Please model this.
Amino acid sequence: MSGLGISAPRLLLRKLHQVMAGHGDAEQRLNEIVRLIAGNMIAEVCSCYLRRAGDVLELYATEGLKKNSVHKTRLRFGEGLVGDIAAHARPLNLSDAQSHPQFAYRPETGEEEYHSLLGTPILRGGRLIGVLVVQNRTRRTYTEEEVEALQTVAMVVAELVSSEQMVSATEFSDTAGNATLPHHINGRILAEGLGAGTALLHEPRIEVVHAISNNRAKELARLNSAVNSLQSAVEKLLVATNTLFKDESKEIFEAYKMFAHDKGWLKKLQDAVNTGLTAEAAIKRVQDDTRARMKEITDPYLRERLSELDDLANRLYLHLDGRSQIDRRNLEKDTVVVARNMGAAELLDYDRRHLKAVVLVEGTRSSHVAIVARALGVPVVGQCADVLDAVEQGELILVDAEHGQVFLRPGEDVQQAFSRSLRQRAQRQAKYAALRDKPNISKDGVPLSLNVNAGLLIDIDHFPELGADGIGLFRTELQFMVRSQMPKIDEQTQLYSRVLDKMNGKPVIFRTLDIGGDKFLPYLKTKREENPALGWRAIRIGLDRPALLRSQLRALVQAAAGRELSLMFPMIAEVTEFLEAKAILNKEVERASQKKAGPPKKVNVGTMIEVPSIVWQLPHLLKEVDFISVGSNDLMQFFFAVDRGNPKISDRYDTLSPSLLMLLRNIADHCEQAGKPFSICGDIAGRPLEAMALLGLGYRNFSMSSETLGRVKEMALSTNIGKLENFVRGLCQSRDHSVRDQLRAFARDHSIII
Ligand code: PEP
Ligand code: MG
Model:
């Protein structure tokens, strides 16, 4: 059986255009459309199913199946192949449909003689409104062109179904009623905080009012002028100085610029217009393709690239007919942005004063948007699977990114409770701000060092507001992660030097690249691993690829010429690894001494304690290092053999388990005996009760995320460490799962604010 020729879609679209403009009621025209499709695609069957209330698909028109099955054959979402296409909103192309496990036989249709099937969802404004199917007797695989042609035709059908209201819109609101009921979605916390505002759909939902063009030249001209306008807008974005975020956003817009000029993408758009589509429909067509590809791809780098292309399609749509881009900077009221996914650059488009939170269908804690949102203090809840279906633009959303919950159309009681939480949070923040200038000393006069973790320049911009002593962990990989290319040595040098300049003599500990595990670099290709957390990551990559480590160390050493440099290595499992890494550093310091700028005034080199094995080599290690810092996030995951990113088990072991406290105490004791400075920079340093226990174990130097500093400071200022030490040391001997309750009781009895 021959496939569909290149000129055929154009022909088909022209005929469809005549039908759409012709006489007859909507059902008659739909019958005519399925007849035309079957004829043009040389298919024996073409059927159109439309969505009815209750997620049911009803056969509305068919060419080839028994006519009396129309309006009788009904399938639920997920039922049969048609239901499967609807449930996943993606095409199916099967040469032997009947052997597919989802196949559901409907005797009234007489479809048993047809073997091959090609079906595609009919979408309107991002919602599924039906399914279009062609079938053939022979076992054949439909070509890619045929799949595309059917998808294009589905857009035309969508236009007919909606404009003629073939299924009344009230049917959905009346029976389902869901749209107006409060709805609550659980997701994952990607950036902590609380936010409330009206919903703004981030993707403009490309609305195709007319899919078929009657003037190809005019549509091409519209498309080309939109492309030109998009290209210059991206150019402007690149030049625009975003004082807050200059460096990070520049890199991201560079990638956009590359795509906006991508010949393959532009040609696809023009081809689609040449088949007879309007410019809007062409953009939608190409975007649907990108989305379909995204569904298939698991490689995080490629997914990130495709989602940039997806965004670019949205931007292009906004440039049609001289409409410029939505001015996201000009939000007028408190807004919660809802998106399938978002690039970091897009987040930066929004006006910070009114952007109160973000809700994503996808997203992980290590995605760019999450990293940047945390730096900006914008709460984000991700992995909210059905939020785009459930939300309507302009309605109220409450985002609780302290518990990973999103409330749509909340009732009065939920709104009141949320307002209370917001007020309490604001009061707490005001209280912490008032503590900012107080010295970091415990109630009984023990000096403490309270530092923050950072990784982007924007973190440093906020540093003076925090009242922290320094940066105890600068995660250098974040700078690498938000870029689309490996930063060159000069760029790295410039960056580190700006960090040191901005910190103006306050201490900063740089950690060398900690990639792998849940942090990936888009441009560093690595093989997929069975257990990435235990795999090729952090210092292991640095030592196996010394050029990478060397270039980073060179940049750090150059940046700190004439100043003090403190750096540490991640994931050191044995002393020899540290020595190997330190040898590379020494060479770079030596090299810098030969250069005009000279070496740093002083170099302090340390290591993170994240792998339990190194704890058993501490006496050796402590002879070699200038300091250590406990990375309790990884240390815990390896100590308990519990994946820190797996919500099913990540809370199984308590951070206040006696065995972990014993391990932390052991580390502290070794460091004290060796007279070496030690600190802790994992998440537990930022939790008041855990930090209190750490004070009891001898820890005096903490580094934590900036938003937790106030709470920890308040606890420390109210703690009498002398009394606490014996108590906590005693608890290490406990055989309980956790000593949390005992610590809480101690805090209560001794008026410690936790
Ligand atoms: C840690 O493992 O505790 C740590 C601070 O490093 P990261 O969270 O960046 O892995
Ligand atoms: Mg770590």
Notes: Residues 1-6, 173-179, 241-246 have pLDDT under 50 and may be disordered. The radius of gyration is 30 Å.
